[in-house]
Write a structure and sequence with these properties.
Number of strands: 2
Largest sheet: 2 strands, antiparallel
Distance between the termini: 27 Å
Structural class: mainly alpha
Strand content: under 5%
Shape: globular
Number of helices: 17
Order of helices and strands: HHHHHHHHHHHHHHHEEHH
Helix content: over 70%
């Protein structure tokens, strides 16, 4: 894409500024990430409990629809990755697309819930179209651009690491407060199975994303892109893929991300159901709040603890040790999944273990991208980001699809909204349905934690990253000097 006029960013200088940290990497992403976090936990609930699509086509629709949609999303992720690689502007190659996302995210977010009251066929078509407009187009554009903000921000590992922490505070803390505390305690008991209430609430959250995405655009900066320059042509996709697939560290971090995302996907998609039908009662306003807040309390502590530990012991080592705790916490929950005290204890321990992964993954990913540049002489940012985004999107589709067919087969009974009284009645679920929710919420992540420990044992890219970055700088200086002489 050729250069075109864009509004200038509000960040300048070679080093990260306070405004950049607080506005570009903390406040800016909150809107889109909050909307995505709410959708990740509650959109499937909207489909099963409000639209009552669980038994459409004998339960097959809600199994196939998310999987097929995410395959479409995977294709658009690859396309978007290459669009980013071919984008050439003074404001960078990824940041400009935040401007388009700022408009598309709110509009498509509202369409997800504006499903007309019509025949099942019409509603199925609306769900398919609105879901893909949001995830395959709008959120793909945002997420691909957002994912590259830390890797392209600056080469200095300390400054980049701090941005990684701030960036994750946006998703872990801000969205966590609303999704984990306000939604289950205040909003969900009011929404119940009323579609009009869902539409009103989600419209507000969708519209909120517009000014915040603009803030992310204006208060971020692609120093790495500026360093490379806008004249360097991207290498062919086939060549980039060859390099990526033959690089041990890249393969390992992709496997790491895949396993973690699948585990988190099952946990997030089953959270509301587990709290409503296994640990507590339907929308009691307390159970989900306690599980999310008490279990997620360590995330607040992690802001101050994780990065100092990562600098002292290494990002990989701290993350590996964390997943040992993660597995222990999961086992505690699985021992007595209906006992509130036991589950809260296990969730607290598990989330302490998950702290390093939540806060330093972007920095680890950036180290791998720098290592690739050192090794092959060019960057693969767009393709790497697109493949990571594919993992996120496809994993969500697969986990939702598997959960939906399992609960449909086990005999899930959706709640009923009573128009006359404005109340929603939730039904008790049979043992088979409860077992499905228990396995996917507290059992599956034990398996993923063990796998992640093994992967991280070999993901030691940071041991030579300082030397490799120094060699990249020298290489760039030599190329600039040669170009100047010519």
């Amino acid at each position: 894409m050729k250069a075109f006029p864009l509004p200038a960013g509000r960040v300048s200088g070679e080093h990260v500024t306070k405004k950049e940290r607080w506005l570009g990497y903390l406040a800016g992403p909150c809107g889109a990430l909050l909307l995505n976090a709410v959708l990740g936990v509650y959109l499937n609930v909207f489909y099963t409990d409000v639209l009552k699509l669980t038994h459409v086509w004998g339960g097959v629709f809600l199994m196939l629809f998310p999987i097929v949609s995410k395959i479409i999303d995977a294709v658009t992720n690859v396309i978007m990755g290459q669009i980013i690689e071919h984008t050439r502007t003074k404001e960078g190659k990824a940041r400009p697309w935040l401007l388009l996302a700022s408009v598309l995210i709110p509009v498509t977010g509202i369409l997800l819930f504006a499903v007309p009251k019509a025949s099942d066929t019409f509603r199925v078509i609306w769900v398919l179209l609105s879901y893909n407009l949001f995830y395959s187009i709008a959120f793909t554009i945002y997420n691909m651009s957002h994912a590259l903000m830390v890797p392209l921000s600056i080469r200095n590992t300390k400054e980049r690491g701090s941005l990684s922490v701030f960036n994750n505070i946006a998703s872990v803390m801000v969205s966590g407060i609303i999704v984990a505390l306000i939604f289950p305690m205040v909003i969900m008991p009011v929404l119940g199975a009323s579609q009009s209430r869902w539409l009103f609430t989600m419209s507000i959250i969708s519209i909120l994303a517009f000014p915040l995405i603009l803030m992310e655009y204006f208060f971020t900066k692609e120093r790495v892109t500026e360093e490379i320059g806008t004249s360097e042509d991207p290498h062919p996709v086939r060549e980039q893929l060859h390099v990526l697939l033959h690089e041990k560290y890249w393969v390992l971090i992709v496997l790491y991300f895949l396993v973690y995302t699948v585990g988190s996907g099952f946990k997030n998609s089953s959270l509301v159901y587990y709290c409503n039908y296994v640990l507590g009662t339907y929308n009691d306003g307390i159970t989900q709040m306690l599980v999310s807040v008490i279990g997620g309390l360590p995330m607040g502590i992690g802001i101050f603890a994780v990065w100092p530990l990562a600098k002292k012991f290494g990002k990989r080592n701290v993350t590996l040790a964390g997943f040992v705790l993660y597995a222990i916490g999961g086992i505690i929950c699985f021992i007595a999944p209906k006992n509130m005290a036991v589950v809260l204890t296990g969730q607290f321990i598990k989330n302490i273990g998950g702290l390093p992964c939540a806060y330093v993954f972007a920095a680890m990913f950036a180290d791998v991208l720098d290592h690739l540049e050192w090794k092959c002489g060019f960057r693969c940012d767009g393709l790497s980001a697109s493949l990571n985004s594919i993992i996120t999107t496809v994993a969500v589709g697969i986990t939702n699809g598997i959960l939906n067919i399992c609960i449909s087969s086990a005999g899930y009974k959706a709640p009923e909204f009573i128009e006359a009284t404005g109340e929603t009645i939730g039904f008790a679920q049979n043992a088979a349905v409860q077992n499905v929710f228990t396995f996917f919420f507290v059992g599956f992540e034990i398996i993923t934690a063990i796998i992640l420990i093994v992967i991280l044992k070999y993901l030691d890219v940071e041991k030579n990253i300082d030397r490799e970055q120094e060699e990249i700088w020298k290489r760039r200086e030599s190329q600039d000097a040669t170009a100047g002489a010519e």
